[in-house]
Each structure stands twice: as C-alpha cells, then as structure tokens.
Amino acid sequence: MNLILQAFKSNATDINVIAALAKAQRVEHIDAGRVPDVQAWRCVDVDNSDETRAAVDAACLSAQVDYAFVDPALRLADFRLVAMDMDSTLITIECIDEIADMQGLKPQVAEITEAAMRGEIEFNESLTRRVALLKGLDASALQRVYDERLQLSPGADNMLKAIQAAGLKTLLVSGGFTFFTDRMKTRLGLDYTHSNTLEVADGKLTGKVVGGIVNADEKRLTVERVCREIGADPSQAIVMGDGANDLKMMGISGLSVAFRAKPVVRAQADVGLNFVGLDGILNLLA
C-alpha cells in the first residue's frame, strides 16, 4: 500500500514523522498541478497494520493533514461514476437550515438536521419534522437561499472538471430538494440528479414533500440504478458524503469518501477529507 498525505499547509517535520510512523520506504512529492494550493506526498510501500493506521490517524489529525492508504494500482480510469451528496458535501450549506432561517426557525431545524446526520434520528422522520416547520413560508425564499447563501465546497469545481474530462458520469443524490439539485445539474453539467420535491400551493410551502423521500435506502438504490444505466458495477463508483444517510450508498461503492463528515461516517469510509477540498480525491488516483 501507499500512503497519500495532503494539506493546504504543512511542514517537512510533520510529513517525515508521519512517514516514519507508516514505515515508508521513501517519500515523493506529488505534482501540485492536479490540485492547486494543496501540498501532497506519496509515502511508498507502507505498513498497513491496524496499529500503524491508528498511529497515522492520530498524527495526521494533530498536524491537520489528510491521509489515505491506497492501492498503488488504483486509477481514476478504474471508475465510471462519481456520486455525491449535496448539502455539506458538494455545497457548503444545509439548504433546509437556510430556508428555515427565512422563517426565523434555523436553530430548531438545524438541531434536527445535525441529529439526523449523526444517525440519531431516522431520516424520514427528521425530514418530515423539518419540512413541516416551513409551512406558510413564501416559496421565493428558495431562490434567495440559492442566490445569497449557496456556495460550492472547496475543490468542487476542479474535481468535477477533472472527472468529467476523464469521461466519468456524475450523480447528485440528495435528501435535499429538487429546487437546488436541478440548478446544480444545469450549472455544473451533471449527468443525473435525484432528490425530494417540496410541495408548493399558492406560492407558499405547504410543509409537505411530494412523493417518496430520498433517504439512505433510496440513495443506495439510485446509485445502483444509475450504474445499471451506464453499464457499470457499483464497485466502479466513487461515492462522497458527510452524513449517516450517505452510508448505505457509500457502502456499495468502490471508493467511499467522507468529506468534512460526521464521526460515524469517517469511521466507515475508505477515505476521509477533513482539511483539503473535494479535489483531494485526484491525488489518490493516478
């Protein structure tokens, strides 16, 4: 195995200490051209024991360095699909929390959102409760959130351009809302999107969702469906997420990426990006 280390800022001492913990045979700089503003190193032929992984994890967290143990043979060309969660993954905000802020209810809604992302509340229940709090809000609030608050996560543009240039398909699958995923699809040239539809009547939110809820099971089924459509196996999918409702789709992927994720997700993902941007995955794949 190789160990890939990357950070926005680091120093040689930290990298050398981590490489020594991993018993690396040598350390190489990775060309900064693929991921601008990020320093990256490849530690070649490292020890892959649980003890070493635990030591590397602690040292990297202390130094604010992202790490990944990867098969040296792994290539971007091995994959056919990149599937992403939207809120707090592809974008920096939780859209429903920001919509609730227009109603003066952000603290109440955000508390439910956080509990759901940690896996403490079943997702269907959490979404139903949160959407109900939005009843009566003018639907124009959705456009305000999009215009005033929605921002892409660091590295999102660079990551998408690279994977699209390599011929991979893209899927945005979200427990959020079609109002936002539809706009992301057009803006970023995504191939597939799937999310929830907020019910609107007389220009107001009714506090209900139209149709079935895109929960953890539906996210997994969506990844499987898109893979079938493009003639790929789920093992040829890279899946990115941050919350507990992403774990099922991450679990069937060939490479699961926890981005600025909750501890329960980081613990189960193949790769954790806690400090660098989404384009950090490009340094992992030749």
UniProtKB/TrEMBL annotation:
Q: What broad class of enzyme is this?
A: hydrolase
This protein's cofactor list reads: Mg(2+)
**Source organism per UniProt:** Herbaspirillum chlorophenolicum
NCBIfam families cross-referenced by the UniProt entry: HAD-SF-IB, serB
Family membership = Belongs to the HAD-like hydrolase superfamily. SerB family.
Tell me the protein's name.
Phosphoserine phosphatase
Q: Which UniProt keywords apply?
A: Amino-acid biosynthesis, Hydrolase, Magnesium, Metal-binding, Serine biosynthesis
One Pfam short name: Hydrolase
Its catalytic activity? O-phospho-D-serine + H2O = D-serine + phosphate; O-phospho-L-serine + H2O = L-serine + phosphate
Q: Which GO terms describe its molecular function?
A: hydrolase activity
Pathway the protein acts in: Amino-acid biosynthesis; L-serine biosynthesis; L-serine from 3-phospho-D-glycerate: step 3/3
Which InterPro entries does UniProt cross-reference here? HAD-like_SerB, HAD-like_sf, HAD_sf, PSP
Query: Which CDD domains does the UniProt record give?
Result: HAD_PSP
Q: Name the gene behind this protein.
A: serB
Upper lineage: Bacteria, Pseudomonadati, Pseudomonadota, Betaproteobacteria, Burkholderiales
Write down the EC number: 3.1.3.3
Q: Which domain of life is it from?
A: Bacteria
Q: Supply the Gene3D superfamilies for this chain.
A: HAD superfamily/HAD-like (3.40.50.1000)
